[in-house]
Every structure is written in structure tokens, then in C-alpha cells.
Amino acid sequence: MTDGGASLAGRGGNPILGPGFAGLSGWVLAALLLGVSGLLGMALTLVDPVKIGILVVALVGCVFFMRMSLHHPVGTLCAIIFAQVTVPVYIRLPIPGLPSLPPPLLLIAGLSGVLLFRQFLHPTRVRTGRYERFLSTALLLYGAALVLTLPGNEHVYGGSVSMLVKTWVIPTFLFFILLSTIRTPGQLERVHTAILIAAVLSGMLGVHEFITRDNFIATALAPRVTIEEDFFLWLLANSDKSPPYIGGAIYRVYSFFTQPLEYSAFMVMAMPYPVLKFVTATTPGQRLIYGVAGLIIMAGFVVSFSRGPTLALVLVLLFLAIHERRVRPWLLVGLGLAVLALIVAWPFIADQLTERVSGSRNVTLRFRLWENGIITFLENPIRGIGYGSYPNYHAQSIHDHQIGPMYEYPWRHIESVTTVENIYVSLAAETGLLGLGAFFLLLGVYAYIFRKVMRLGDPRIRLLALTSAGATLAFLLSGMTVANIIGYTISILFFGVYIASIGVLSRRLPDHPHPSPAVLAPFVSTRSPRYPRPRPADGTG
């Protein structure tokens, strides 16, 4: 599974830690277990046995995770990315002395610690390609721009730092973990397969939720909050979701997410991979598997009733059709099937679909939100008002500039809407030209590397590059009407997986695209007395 692992293991070395460390990881684990056993033995007389049992299970799980991370890092990374999608963020693990954290975040931190531990035991020089360095530098510059624009107001500083950690620090950790763990296109394909499986499960849960109007995961595990604390989480966890209860608005599915729009944006991001695998499949079995997966994802997306992401999906499919000819006939077939499915399902979704298409309140709201964001940017064009601090300025700015009327639900106030619903206007308002320019620099570097990778001609690399670009385009296009730059899960996937994927694929590019000029030998005259002119063998001349 690991490149070169068999040869190292055959020589008595550890395929992860390197030669000479064959039994070191085993000794470390044995010492860890011995120490834990001693501590537990002392604690048994002082602590409740039930808590001891929970602690034992947690410690055994930690040991298992550490060993898996050392010997199967690619599989561990795939499991973490899968959990990132399928474990809702409202599920938190209580940690004594620390804030409750989502389990996938703990797994990312654990894998980072194991990789650092491996580097400490067996220091190796990390060799990165020319284009990987370009991409990493652009991502770090974007993060530096966000840090420089953090607000100085102590009342909003904590929230801004929290937003920075959620939308840049954690995704950047995953970015470098993926670059250091994934070595081959085959391993990268396994990562996208993990996302595909998560998207299929998400689509199935979304369809079930739409039919039953109940998200059984949220009903059982989501915390109970008031409508003032978190409207979407309140709506998600509330058992009565009939249209009259929510002011006449149709019910929007959540699946594993806490925002319907984040769910729909993720489903669009996950769509390119099954589409490309379907059209390039070489056997009927492969085509059946990826075709069914794509249909489930599409069904889960349709019941989200999201207009902006729908336009993003259409444009992404057109993008794939432009770069891959085999997508074009199937795109026409899919269009015909979509029309047929709409006709069949019309009696069941007519009211909801008509309301979403004809409803203008939500669209009008976005125009007013964008207007307020642009005004905020024009008043603070260089550094903005501070990354993550827009919710604290939103309501006052609306009243100061008399923007409106604005409404989304008849009984709600505009102060409850605290996003710009556009990632570009949001970045401009909060970080000014500094943050917006750094973001577009990152996108420019990504597009430059993508163009280079597409010229390689390798079908597998081409498929993975189009998967990455399609998901990236989906994120950027859906961000025209969704504030997905602040979405926890899709931000992690955008920066940590899809942007990083093009860095992995760029390793097939030469580090020096222009060869060095040839070094010519010094000219030596043949007329020199030291170097007499050679004479013919017959003695003439």
C-alpha cells in the first residue's frame, strides 16, 4: 500500500519510520500501554468503574489510531475525510479542561501529531516540487492576509480568531497532511473515493429527510437551542417541520450539515468525480456503480431546492463537457432523464419548486445584503473591517445607510441574517483588497498549475485534475449566492483536499520547465604550437 514499504520491510525496516526503526514503534506502543495500565490500576480504587471503562475504550482507540496512522497513513487520512463529512459538527466530544470539539477535528490533530512524531524519530528532508511550493506559498500568503486584517476590537477579536481557525488554520493543516501523505495518483483517487462514499450517504439521508421531514441524526444528537441562538440548528432539531410552522417556507434538507446551503454546495462539489469515472469506465460493473452513485448524489441535491448551487452544477457539468468529450453525449442523456424525472415527480414537488422559482423575497434579501457589504468595503477598502467581524457591524450598517426593505421570513428581523451570502463581497468587506487579492492570487496559482497538469496527457492524472477543478469551480460558483467561505466542512474540503490535489498531481511536472543552457568547451586553436595541426596518415600536407 505504501510506496517502497515492501522493500523496507524485507530488509527489517519499518516502512513508515524507515530502516533501523523496525521495532521502535512497537516498543513505544508497549511502553504506552504499560504506563496506561499502571495509571488505570491506581485509579480503579478512586474513580467510578464506569468512567474507567470509558477511559479504557478511549485509550485503546487512541493506540489503534496511532498504529493505523503509522502503518496505514493513506487509509487513516481517507477515514478522517470521510468522518469530516458524515459526523455533524454539532456532535462534540467533552474534554476536561478544554472546549468540546468535533471528533474529526481531533482526528486531524492526532494524525498531525503522529506525522510530527515520525519526523522526530526519523528526520527526513521534505522534498517538494516547484509547483507545490508555489501553491503552498500562495495559501500561506492568503492566511497571512487574513491575520493582518483581524480586528483590534477586543469585543469581536475572539470570534474573528475562531473564524480564522475554522476556515483557514484547520484546512491548511489538512492541506499539508495530504501533501505529505499522498504520494501517487492512485492514493489520491482513494481520497476522492472516500468523499464519494460520504456524498452518497449524505444524499441518501437527504432524500430520507425530505420524505419523512425528519433528520433522525439531528433529532437524537443535536443540542436543543432557542430560535434566537441558532435559527438553522433550532429548525434542524425541531420535530415539527410542517410549512405553517416555519412561516410558510418550504422545508430544506440538512443531511449531515447544519446549513441547507452548505449541504447543497457540497453535493455539487462531489458530483464531478462520479461523472468522470462513469464516462471513462471500462467495464459495465464500474459504469453501474458510478452511475448509481451519481444518481443518488443528484437526488440528494435536488431535494435541497437550492437555486444558486443549481446554476453552479449546470456550469460545472458544462466545464467537464468542454474538457472531456465523453461527457457530452451523457450530458444530453442526463438532461432528457432530468426532464422525465421532473414530469414524474411534479405532483410531489410542484408546490415547493414553484415557491422556490417564483419567490422573490429571498433574492431581494441577497441584493440588499450585497449592497450593504459593498458599502462596507468602500468605507474600508484596504484592510476591511476585520476578518470574521461582519456580523458585529451588519445591523448597525443597515440602519446607518437605510438599506432595505429586507426580509426573508415574515416574522424575522434582518438583524438575524449575519452573512453577506457572497464569498467575494464578504472577503472584500471583511479583509479589503488585501484579503481579496490574496484569495485571487491563490486561485491564479491553482489555475496556472491546473493548466500545466492538463498538458501531461496521462488519462488518470487528467481525470483527477478535472475532479479537483470541477469541485473548485463548484465552490466558487455556489459562493456567488452562498457564504460558503465560512462553511466549516466545505472550506476544509476546498482548501485541504481539492486545492491540495493539484499540488500532488503537479509532481509529475518537471521542476525546471526550461532546460539549462549547454556548457560549451573552451575553444582551442589547432594552429597553436602546443597543439599542432594533425597530418594525414600518408604524410602529405
From TrEMBL:
Residue stretches spanning the membrane: 21-44, 50-67, 74-91, 103-121, 133-150, 156-179, 191-211, 288-318, 330-349, 423-449, 461-479, 485-505
Bilayer disposition of the protein: Multi-pass membrane protein
Record keywords: Membrane, Transmembrane, Transmembrane helix
Subcellular location: Membrane
Chief localisation class: membrane
Annotated O-antigen ligase-related domain residues: 295-440
Record-linked InterPro entries: O-antigen_ligase-rel_domated (IPR007016), WaaL-like (IPR051533)
Listed GO CC annotations: membrane
Stored Pfam families: Wzy_C (PF04932)
PANTHER family on file: LIPOPOLYSACCHARIDE BIOSYNTHESIS PROTEIN PA4999-RELATED (PTHR37422:SF13), TEICHURONIC ACID BIOSYNTHESIS PROTEIN TUAE (PTHR37422)
Name recorded for this polypeptide: O-antigen ligase-related domain-containing protein
Lineage: Bacteria, Pseudomonadati, Pseudomonadota, Alphaproteobacteria, Rhodobacterales
